[in-house]
Write a structure and sequence with these properties.
Blueprint lengths: L2 H19 L4 H29 L3 H25 L6 H29 L2 E2 L2 H20 L14 H25 L22 H36 L4 H11 L1 H12 L3 H29 L10 H17 L4 E2 L1 H19 L2
Antiparallel strand pairs: 1-2
Pfam family, one: Na_Ca_ex
Main location: membrane
Keywords: Membrane, Signal, Transmembrane, Transmembrane helix
Length: 355
């Protein structure tokens, strides 16, 4: 194991501990920002070591689920601390994560892969299964609350919340079963795709376990440092007069850095299937695991929970899914598809700043 792969997550964890006990000044904030980037680099490295040991698609599932579980913990902790003022936090976070992944991460992967390799391929069977599940989960969680009539606009009744939470968790679990057991071949790279790891010997069990432990340390550090830096981000947003939802977007961007980097590296290595597994799997986990957790938290603590999106956001979400169904519907991509997704990503960011 390279020395930096050991030192970066441990150093980031040390700075996170220091930031919890010290006042966040300019110097400490700068150090935390550098440590966050280092933790992202280390997380991607250790995720790739684990992925090489367990093989696809289990490897991409490790990174997606690990980051999502920690993201859920971050959202729930902020709900516990913020009380009723965080009623829209889960909605804003989930929506931001889905839009960032489906337009930004996918767009960068397609554009970078198209520039490097002209044209790339992936298995439509797996991608279409993931995309259809994602549309259903997003529709149940973020769209329908804006149209139901049993409770105020944008909210669900308790029975509706229980149904959506159970449905989200069940659909995510079924997708994981399909991805890893029943139709695992749908999520494996096409036989003619390049694979830079095919000739490399898998790491030992000891090294893989060590990398898994350091991966968790790095991910906890990423989320923790992002949370520590969030007050400064919030102050900057307020000073700029931007909408409060921008804070959730900024935090989501920080938390999704490891997945983004891993997905882009895979696309540059002509392993677009791995990129799609990471991106769409992360979006599914973001909803399938987050919704049940926040529903339980809101119900137990009797906190308000607003899930329904505003009309502008509903249109952007529909556009993202429509374009994704078209651009990913042939199993072959080029840089044009990436450019289309990135334009939608730019529109999402711009309209978040100027609603």
């Amino acid at each position: 194991m390279p020395a930096w792969a050991l030192l970066l997550p441990l150093g980031a964890a040390g700075l996170l501990a220091a930031s919890l006990g010290l006042t966040m000044g300019t110097a400490l904030a700068a150090a935390c920002a550098v440590a966050l980037i280092g933790a992202v680099i280390a997380a991607v490295h250790h995720a790739e070591v684990v992925a090489h040991r367990v093989g696809e698609p289990f490897g991409t599932l490790v990174l997606a689920v690990a980051i999502t579980v920690i993201e859920v913990a971050l959202i729930v902790s902020m709900m516990l601390a913020g009380g009723p003022d965080t009623a829209t936090l889960p909605r804003d976070t989930i929506y931001a994560a889905v839009m960032i992944i489906c337009t930004g991460v996918v767009g960068i992967c397609l554009l970078a892969g198209g520039i490097s390799h002209h044209e790339q391929t992936f298995r439509m069977e797996g991608t279409n299964s993931a995309l259809s599940a994602l549309v259903a989960l997003a529709g149940l969680s973020l769209v329908l609350p804006s149209f139901t009539t049993s409770s105020p606009e944008g909210t669900y009744t308790l029975s509706q919340l229980v149904f959506v939470a159970a449905s989200s968790l069940a659909l995510w679990a079924i997708f994981v079963f399909v991805q890893t057991v029943r139709h695992r071949d749908y999520f494996l790279p096409p036989k003619n795709a390049a694979d830079e790891d095919v000739h490399a010997a898998p790491p030992s069990n000891a090294l893989a376990l060590a990398s898994f432990g350091l991966l968790l340390v790095a991910l906890v550090s990423v989320v923790g440092l992002a949370k520590q830096l969030s007050p400064m981000i919030e102050a900057a947003v307020v000073a700029a007069g931007a909408p409060k939802a921008v804070i959730g977007i900024a935090i989501a961007l920080l938390v999704l850095l490891p997945e983004t980097w891993a997905a882009v590296r895979a696309a540059l290595a002509d392993r677009l299937q791995t990129s799609m597994n990471l991106a769409l799997g992360s979006a599914l986990a973001s909803i399938g695991l987050t919704i049940p957790a926040v529903v339980v938290t809101a119900t137990v603590l009797d906190l308000p929970l607003v899930l329904g999106l505003a009309p502008k956001d509903l249109v952007l979400l529909a556009l993202a899914f429509l374009v994704g169904a078209i651009t990913l519907g042939t199993g072959r991509t080029n840089m044009m598809q990436g450019a289309v997704h990135l334009v939608l990503f730019a529109a999402f960011l711009f309209l978040s700043l100027v609603p």
